[in-house]
Amino acid sequence: MTAQNNQVFAPGSTIGIIGGGQLGRMSAMAAAKLGYRVHILNPAATSPAIEVSASATVGFYDDPVALEDFASRCDVVTFEFENISVEGLSLLEKRRPVRPGGEILRISQDRVLEKTRLAQAGVELAPWKEVSGPADLSAVGELGFPLILKTTRFGYDGKGQFRVENAEALSALTDLPYPLVAEKMIDFQRELSVMVVRGSDGTVRCFDAVENRHRDGILDITLAPARVMPEVAERAQAIAMRIATDLGLVGIMGVEMFHAADGQLLVNEIAPRPHNSGHWTMDACLIDQFEMHIRAVAGLPLPPARRHSDAVMHNLVGPEDMARVPAILATDGASLHLYGKHEARPGRKMGHVNTLFPRGALPGELALEGLLPPR
Ligand code: ADP
Ligand code: MG
């Protein structure tokens, strides 16, 4: 059974979600809103998603027994994170429709496949080279410095990345975790992202382009909409829609881009699932990214992705941000979302806060800092 079929799963059906984290939790809550049951597959018996879902299979993502049990308990399958084994996925695809399909997942798991496929789709990327082993390393200097090396698989929140300033630093590198990709560091004006959703009938809907800022490699703030010329925002949306259509996506996808100093939009990476840079939609849109995803997975109609307000999303990361929660709760206009994680380890995403503004009234740079109580 493939994602290409148009089967509709009416409210009351069971949606299986692979992964038990916060994206699964918020997807499960959106599914519950529409009357679905949610069944989670997760290696641990408790998790943010399991705590808000009807039931769960506890087991590893590549365990055939767990996968069989999981598949037998749901009507349609989706996932909240990408790093499921390809073998596990093909087992599932034999039993149930998987949306989006295994092919897209395989691409987004591997930066080389991803970049190759995105280039085929006709979008611009940062100049890059494959680095399968030490022998490929000297050639990456041709990209120009500074450059960045990234592990091809399992990178997230800036992990598995090495910045290289010059040729001396490059030749001094040892014991790298190959395979890698090398990318030229882009001198960007802004980092943008677009959430795009596509239904099994080919309908494509696109949220407004937003602007993202990172702190220690982790998303810190999203501004919705991005403060760019309308022409740039439209170009960003067109790129996201082109990728969604080209890949035959069914479900939602985050497309990260660099708005380069010269005005080019370069695609950084795609995530075929709900994405942290789409959390602003939970308060600033009638239908948010999670409901759009669930609708696409279930084969329901996809309404236009309308934004009724401007929004600023702040991530809450680690114990230092959890310490701010009492003050955030007492802040007028702050919509708090917590993920129910029991332990606030440094660097762990614990929740986020959305602050809304009338359309066209995003605060200026200085006021932005004062929206939430200080760290
Ligand atoms: P992850 O999978 O960890 O999100 P990314 O490839 O998105 O990995 O990189 C994380 C962040 O590092 C980006 O959001 C961006 O801020 C910075 N970065 C990554 N690649 C480049 C690049 N080629 N040029 C400039 N900045 C980059
Ligand atoms: Mg990224």
UniProtKB/TrEMBL annotation:
UniProt entry tagged with the keyword Transferase: no
Swiss-Prot/TrEMBL keywords: ATP-binding, Ligase, Nucleotide-binding, Purine biosynthesis
InterPro entries (UniProt xref): ATP-grasp (IPR011761), ATP-grasp_carboxylate-amine (IPR003135), ATP_grasp_subdomain_1 (IPR013815), PreATP-grasp_dom_sf (IPR016185), PurK (IPR005875), PurK_C (IPR040686), PurT/PurK_preATP-grasp (IPR054350), Rudment_hybrid_motif (IPR011054)
Pathway given in the UniProt record: Purine metabolism; IMP biosynthesis via de novo pathway; 5-amino-1-(5-phospho-D-ribosyl)imidazole-4-carboxylate from 5-amino-1-(5-phospho-D-ribosyl)imidazole (N5-CAIR route): step 1/2
Binding, ATP: 111, 150, 155-161, 183-186, 191, 214, 268-269
UniProt EC number: 6.3.4.18
Residues in the signal sequence: none
The protein's name in its UniProt record: N5-carboxyaminoimidazole ribonucleotide synthase
Function: Catalyzes the ATP-dependent conversion of 5-aminoimidazole ribonucleotide (AIR) and HCO(3)(-) to N5-carboxyaminoimidazole ribonucleotide (N5-CAIR). Catalyzes the ATP-dependent conversion of 5-aminoimidazole ribonucleotide (AIR) and HCO(3)- to N5-carboxyaminoimidazole ribonucleotide (N5-CAIR).
GO terms classed as biological process: 'de novo' IMP biosynthetic process
CC terms in the record's Gene Ontology section: cytosol
Matches recorded under NCBIfam families: PRK06019.1-1, PRK06019.1-2, PRK06019.1-5, purK
Domain ATP-grasp: 115-298
